[in-house]
Amino acid sequence: MGIKVKEVADLVGISVRTLHHYDEIGLLTPEATTTSGYRLYSEEDLECLQQILFFKELGFPLKKIREIISSPSFNKSEALELHRKYLIDKRSRLDKIIATIDKTIEHTKGEINMSNKEKFEGFDFSQNPYEQEARERWGEKAVDDSNKKISSMSKKEKETANEKMIAIYTKLAELRYDSPASDEAQAAIKDWYDLLNNNFGSYNLETFKGLGKLYVDDKRFTKNIDKMGEGLAKFMSEAMAIFTDSKK
């Protein structure tokens, strides 16, 4: 006897709508249905759902997950080992960021002094946690080009790009109380535009402006960017729009 969709939703902690969506896109189709048309999930279906959620936790888009788990070469045991490895790596990075936050709190209270380098320990811009949303907004090619460009970079090149990124963010954070149309702000935003295109993909002016809009429309982006300085996301968004419009 299988498990009904509502029972699976309650068991896992996801919505019935999500499970219906997985079925509609061919990601997880229940093994059977009742005579009344209710979906029935088997133990194997639940194992498949667990794999899907592990991949989602690591930032994989649903389309990519479907490709992986439907491949004849897919091996559940190997996948579990990889999930474990990557999640440990993710935990390690989060631990470093938490340690940086703790130091920053002490620094803010005047209890310790932090170097500029220490302020950014744990941050890693080589991976994009919003890959799925980027694919939905800008299409597969833009993100694939970005990933291809990043994967072709050497460790030294990635470190250099990361250092330049931090320097640009730091500069913009210092300028965020000035006008986003100022010469200094626009020069820094041009550096940001050039850095993205030289290291992380192909961004035309409209895509660049759309990215800036996302900085304020998506609270995840806003929260992350504002770690560098409250109001930075809004400032960058406005500066990016001005930069784009000035080039038309």
TrEMBL record:
<protein>
    <submittedName>
        <fullName>DNA-binding transcriptional MerR regulator</fullName>
    </submittedName>
</protein>
<keyword id="KW-0804">Transcription</keyword>
<dbReference type="InterPro" id="IPR000551">
    <property type="entry name" value="MerR-type_HTH_dom"/>
</dbReference>
<keyword id="KW-0010">Activator</keyword>
<keyword id="KW-0238">DNA-binding</keyword>
<dbReference type="Pfam" id="PF13411">
    <property type="entry name" value="MerR_1"/>
</dbReference>
<dbReference type="GO" id="GO:0003677">
    <property type="term" value="F:DNA binding"/>
</dbReference>
<dbReference type="InterPro" id="IPR047057">
    <property type="entry name" value="MerR_fam"/>
</dbReference>
<feature type="domain" description="HTH merR-type">
    <location>
        <begin position="1"/>
        <end position="71"/>
    </location>
</feature>
<dbReference type="InterPro" id="IPR036244">
    <property type="entry name" value="TipA-like_antibiotic-bd"/>
</dbReference>
<dbReference type="InterPro" id="IPR012925">
    <property type="entry name" value="TipAS_dom"/>
</dbReference>
<dbReference type="InterPro" id="IPR009061">
    <property type="entry name" value="DNA-bd_dom_put_sf"/>
</dbReference>
<dbReference type="Pfam" id="PF07739">
    <property type="entry name" value="TipAS"/>
</dbReference>
<dbReference type="GO" id="GO:0003700">
    <property type="term" value="F:DNA-binding transcription factor activity"/>
</dbReference>
<keyword id="KW-0805">Transcription regulation</keyword>
